[in-house]
Amino acid sequence: MSKPLLSLCMPTNGVVEWVFPVLESIYKQGCDNSLFEVVITDNGNNIEFKRLIKKYVSEHDNILYAETKVLPFHNEIESYKRASGELIKFVNHRTLLIDGTLQILIDFIDRHKEKKPIIYYSNGVLMLERKENMFKTFDEFVCNLSYWSSWSTGMTIWKSDFEKLPVNISNFNELFPHMDVLFAEKERENYIIDNRKIFNELPVNGISKAKYDLFYAFCVEYLAIILKLLLNGDIKTSTFLTIKNDNLIFISRLYLNFVIRKKPCSYDLSSLKNSIKVFYSRKELFFAVFKLSLNKIKRKG
Fold first, then answer.
1. pTM flag (> 0.85)
2. Which pLDDT belongs to residue 206?
3. Per 3-state DSSP, what percentage of the chain is helix, strand, and coil (rounded to 5)?
4. Separation in Å, CA 86 to CA 94, 109, 158, 159
């Protein structure tokens, strides 16, 4: 069997309620199975999921399923290792592909397989004028992604670029390993952010999304990655400050939802007091939360 053009990589810990609807959203698009493959890496212990997925795999000739023991977020990179397509697209195990998405991805490969620009699918979350936005420098790419670079769901990488990375991923960031992949190529001629909507998220409905330290992740670890880019001369000071300021707005939303409104979540929220003061101050956070709350009141009015 010839290699597919596209690898859809879905790392999972085995949530039946999410994975199978996502798989159905892929196969109902009617795309030629020879053009793509689905790679599923499972680091969970859900016996029922393992039984069901093995049956599903037996009914499709372009799915690769593997059980792994890697760290939770490193499972994403583990799925990339098993991909054989020219282009690797990360598929979050709780995001349904919108009809036509597979064709969008395959058309992108056909148009760009010679120059292989860096590509990220932002799913309409950015205030960008065009569907496909081209940037000439790594700095512009990082600046326009802003804090959404922390979001692995938009991840896409050419197989040839992934093969340049270290085989041993133990030094990749434990919380944001995709950023070691996304930021690996800093001298490419073209960087693209495709801002069209290509998927919809499934509702959580009480299922635990993650149990990591939320405020440490986004107040400290994420910004430390961006700071390293600045210190290495890969991005400008203005880019770092833009991301830092945008990230504070994101953190204020987390604080409003999970600390003030006490919305249910599985995150560890205990490190807020210590984490916020690494790159920000409590005063900056409270002012950002106040502005966010005020804007919500104005919109309702």
1. yes
2. 65
3. 45, 15, 40
4. 24, 8, 6, 5
